[in-house]
Structures are given as C-alpha cells and as structure tokens.
Write a structure and sequence with these properties.
By secondary structure, this protein is α/β, with parallel strands linked by helices. The chain is built from 4 helices and 4 strands; from the N terminus they run H-E-H-E-H-E-E-H.
C-alpha cells in the first residue's frame, strides 16, 4: 500500500495544492521493473507482472516525467534504454533531474540527489509482484478519458 499512498499524496494531492504542472517519478530497474538474474554481461529482460503495461501507461501521461534511477553501468543503461524504447517506455532522464536544479536560497540541494515525487524502488518497500497492478489501476482510474 506504500506506493499507492505515495502517488495519492505526492502526486495527486500535492499537484493540486502546490499548483504543479508536472510530477517526477523515479524508477529503479533490478528487483523493481525487471527480475534480476545476477549475471554480469547477461542483461535481464524479464518484466515483473504488469510492469510493462504500467510503464507504457505512465509514458503516455504528459504530466509525469520519468527518471531512471539506477546503479547500472553505462553500457547496461544503454541496453536498458533500448529495451524500454522497443517496448514504448520512455524515460526523460537517467540519474538526474535537470528540470529542478538546486536553488542556493531554496529548500533542497539536488546536486547529488535528483528531485522526485514518487520512488519505485524494491529496497524502499516497493513490491514488484503486486504493486504494479495497483499502480496501473490507480492511474487508469485517475486519468480516465485523459489518455
């Protein structure tokens, strides 16, 4: 239930209250989008249930900026981005968010930690076996007729 609450609060509620035009979703790869195989040189390509469909849906939503948030090596990132592109999944940035730079008089410092509103990360409690379906249903219900 954690990711759903995060989306309801950090996306839908704050977007209205704070008059945001856009929100930022950050996505880890291994153990979140793709099932890890723990084999160097063998890039995993097996999506978790509903991950593919949900990421395709999010890619169509004009008010969500998708950030790939990964510790993968640069050559692996290229492979993943190609895999995602082939599957109609489009990340705007990798490990950065230049749309929300650090303001020295502002609230936060985003030089080393990109700004995001919602984090999809297995190490933060995201359950890839179940949460993708809940996110898909939530977004579909909230964007009904707007996609």
């Amino acid at each position: 239930m954690g990711i759903v609450k995060s989306i309801l609060t950090n996306h839908f509620e704050y977007k209205i209250v704070r008059h945001w035009d856009k929100v930022y979703y950050a996505f880890d790869i291994h153990g979140t989008i793709l099932k890890p195989n723990y084999q160097y040189g063998n890039t995993p390509k097996d999506f978790y249930p509903m991950a593919l469909e949900t990421l395709q849906l999010i890619s169509k939503l004009p008010d969500i900026c998708m950030i790939l948030y990964t510790c993968s090596h640069p050559h692996e990132i290229d492979e993943y981005l190609e895999l995602f592109k082939e599957n109609d999944i489009h990340f705007q940035y990798v490990n950065e968010n230049p749309e929300d730079p650090t303001d020295t008089n502002g609230y936060g410092n985003y030089d080393k930690k990109p700004y995001m509103n919602v984090l999809f990360e297995d190490k933060a409690g995201f359950d890839p076996e179940n949460d993708w379906a809940e996110v898909y249903a939530l977004l579909l219900a909230n964007y009904n007729g707007k996609i």
